[in-house]
Amino acid sequence: MMVSRSHSLRPFLLSLLVVPALASKALHLFQHTHSLSPLLLALYFPTFFVLEILLFVVAWFLLNRTYGAKSAIGAAIVGLLGCITLAAASSQIGFYFVTGAEVRWNAAKSVGDDPEGRKLMLSGLKPVLCAGLFLLVLSWLLASGITSVMNNWFAAVTGAFSEESTEQLPGANQKGGSGLRRRGKQWTIIAAAVVFALWLVRPSDPYNHISGALPLSIFYALLVNPSSNVDTSSSSFPLPDLLNPVYWEAPKGHYRGWAPTNGESLETDDYPVTVPEWASPNLPRGFERWAQKSDNSEPVAALESDDEEETDDYETQYYDPVTDPLRITNLDHELFEPLQQALKEHDVPISHVVLVIMESARKDVFPFKSDSHLHQKILDSYEDDEAADEVNAKLSRLSPVAEILTGESSGFPDHEPNELVKDFWNVTSRPGMGGINVNGMLTGSTLSFKSALVNYCGVGPLPILNLFNKVKDGRANSSEDSQDRMEAIRNRKWKTMFSQSITELYDKQNVLNRKMGFNQSICREHLDNRRSKHYHSGMEAINYFGYPEVETYPYLEDVINDALETDSRLFLSHFTSTTHHPWGTPSDFDRKHYFYDDFLGTHDDMDHYLNAVRYVDHWLGKFMNLLEDTGIANETLVVFVGDHGQAFHEDSPVSGTYENGHISNFRIPVVFRHPLLPRLQVTANATTMSVVPTILDLLVNTKSLNQKDTNIALDLMNEYEGQSLIRPFQSQKNGRQAWNFGIINAGGTMLAVTSAAAPYRLVLPLTKDFEFAFSNLEKDPDEEHIINEWNLKGLLKKVKNEHGKEAAKWVQDAESIAKWWIEERKRVWNYHETV
Ligand SMILES: *[C@@H]1O[C@H](CO)[C@@H](O)[C@H](O)[C@H]1NC(C)=O
Ligand SMILES: *[C@@H]1O[C@H](CO)[C@@H](O)[C@H](O)[C@H]1NC(C)=O
Ligand SMILES: *[C@@H]1O[C@H](CO)[C@@H](O)[C@H](O)[C@H]1NC(C)=O
Ligand SMILES: *[C@@H]1O[C@H](CO)[C@@H](O)[C@H](O)[C@H]1NC(C)=O
Ligand SMILES: *[C@@H]1O[C@H](CO)[C@@H](O)[C@H](O)[C@H]1NC(C)=O
Ligand SMILES: *[C@@H]1O[C@H](CO)[C@@H](O)[C@H](O)[C@H]1NC(C)=O
User: Fold this and answer.
1) Residue spans per domain, the chain
2) Model-level pTM?
3) Number of neighbours of residue 3 by Cβ within 10 angstroms
4) Which of these, 643, 662, 644, lies nearest to 653 by C-alpha position?
5) 3-class secondary-structure state, position 316
6) CATH code of the domain occupying 345-476+483-585+594-683
7) Contacts for 450 with CB less than 8 Å, ≥ 6 apart
8) Candidates 151, 152, 153, 163: which one to mutate for ligand 1, based on the most atoms within 8 Å of Cβ?
9) Hey, CA dihedral for 176, 182, 63, 71, is it positive or negative?
10) Residue span of the signal peptide, if any (predicted)?
11) What's 451's DSSP letter?
12) Whose CA is nearest to atom 13 of ligand 5?
């Protein structure tokens, strides 16, 4: 018999679908087995493959035609499906290899829609191509085997069917063969019935997620709009006892009081809804709530809005500190004693505020400390102890600038950070001075731009500066005398500037920046422009987003000098980026090995990261020196805050921030640096929601604002959810805890919940693809023994057994509070799901 070309291709086409689909399923199962009971896993095992089997059967039928156009169409369809499956399975395997995590196709779709996002994806191309090649070769090798198995099976099943119809005819032959076939058919029917029954009785989660099959899960992701499928719809507060009116607090001065009503309207004159005296019809964006409620209850039209979105039928909702059941204020407590003392003794002018947000800045590298968990991991990578001295000498030089900024010592012997930085930073602050270093802080989100929103406090803070500008005419006054100098500062107008050496176009950051109130920015698009003032050839891109930070130096110098010339106050934001994956550094940077360098490159990622950390540490020193050189250091508050941490496989089974709830993604440094503020070491188990209230508190208490602005700032401080970090942090009040929520990259899939009042931590899944995770940070600060469970009931049982009743109660509260919080966020952000 002649075998045509397309004929010989068929087995391969089938195999191209079968091999990647099964490889993908094997990996998928492997990633989930650790949290399932082995017994149930074995019982339901056959049901995990139902979709694949059906798919293979359809493919086989499409290919089992020998002639005509239909045959070609069938082959084309199977070929196309095979290619998609191959590509998807290779991506999945490559992604697992790089991050240890699972790809989610709808998230991949939205990253792929963004040109800068595609660069991010392409950076992981090598492992994907390797996986693809491997699967391709394997498909080729197994092609004939797979086809013959399928053919035999179908011959058995379909043959038995046709046999049955011919059996009644006289002269039926091949009795033996027919018996064999009938058994094949019977077995198939019995197996199908058993699998079907198991499918019916098994619980839908997590098994439906586990049964997902390529390429069907891709089509599903493309067609179905992702939405959170965990029910959070109940909007009443889950712990109503805490809202008892006996706990209510009366308004006092700028404090508007606390009287949560669980959704009912507050029918009392004790908590008047007042419009602040400084409110006027033309308030900047972000202050609409007061602009609309003028006395004669007529909405004021003259809002500052250049690009209004279409309005819908919903009434605009705002956050209200009076009725927020979770709010705990600490503004009624005094400033820390040393701070009060210093402010009595001398002026601490804050003319300028610089907010440095640091990419992937883990608290344990800011500064790097001897005897930390990470230090131990590094030492453990060496087989003999002799290397310890040499590697410790290197590590002691990793983050001297961070040591000076935080006032925390790295703890390595014979070590003088001021000596290490003297080539690039003349540190002028006196011993015992330098500002407030906060320990225990967590990020509000492990996605940089969401974290940025938290840092600027829900789009709020920057319009404040516009507001301050609106209420003064800003004539300059420079005088040498100290009192007059403070006076001059207070009357200056603010200027905002955002700066980073990477692209501003990724994920619409440019739009976000404008909306948050940054009037101008310096970014890659600016550095790349030949007409820019400091454009030069030979700029070296160090990662897929852009250049090293140092390229912004001359522009920052201009910005500061310009502010000095025009006598304005600067709100300068700077985002460091070199510490982002793939942790590239300029070619002339002296890269070092911290971990033991084995030939497999086991620790390469972490090592690259530590080099990037050292690079950025050096840059921050240079940046601080720029403030000294331009003469503004003594009147500038520099706030350093990490956008999120960064997990490596040395820390957790899954690396990176993407859909990874591990604590190493959350711990970040927070420092309020000013050379004339006393050095304070503070602990607060809070999130960066506290950054803006603290900046306002500092501006007010250093008397750096004039009377009018002070009034406004005092009102606004009382509108924020976060507590001030220059006063003792209140971790609980009348039984209600200070909860912290962290949105896990990419958002909408997992939420991290902690409370300042308890050492526990819960990671809550928001879709059915993820597990619950619980840890006790007191006993297990580095989350090496996380409890995972697919449902709350199972989790509560395990937590109770291992950590006691109190911990289980906390988990229950945390879960209900978190669900309530999610609905509450949607309300205050005026977010309405389109059905
Ligand atoms: C179609 O299936 C039969 C078994 O049912 C098998 O013998 C035959 O070789 C198949 N044809 C092709 C083109 O694969
Ligand atoms: C530090 O100050 C000294 C003396 O003013 C100066 O010579 C030196 O260049 C400065 N170093 C840096 C890095 O600015
Ligand atoms: C500037 O300073 C002078 C003298 O110190 C004072 O009289 C004047 O009111 C100040 N102007 C402003 C706008 O503060
Ligand atoms: C930003 O620009 C607008 C209009 O150009 C101006 O009114 C406002 O004062 C500026 N704000 C800041 C903080 O620079
Ligand atoms: C800042 O103040 C310190 C001491 O208070 C002084 O030594 C230093 O020169 C001042 N720096 C600038 C830039 O004025
Ligand atoms: C912060 O949390 C840690 C770990 O749970 C705990 O040891 C510490 O006492 C807490 N600090 C404060 C101030 O609540």
Assistant:
1) 2-223, 345-476+483-585+594-683
2) 0.82
3) 7
4) 662
5) coil
6) 3.40.720.10
7) 444, 743, 745, 747
8) 151
9) positive
10) 1-23
11) H
12) 631
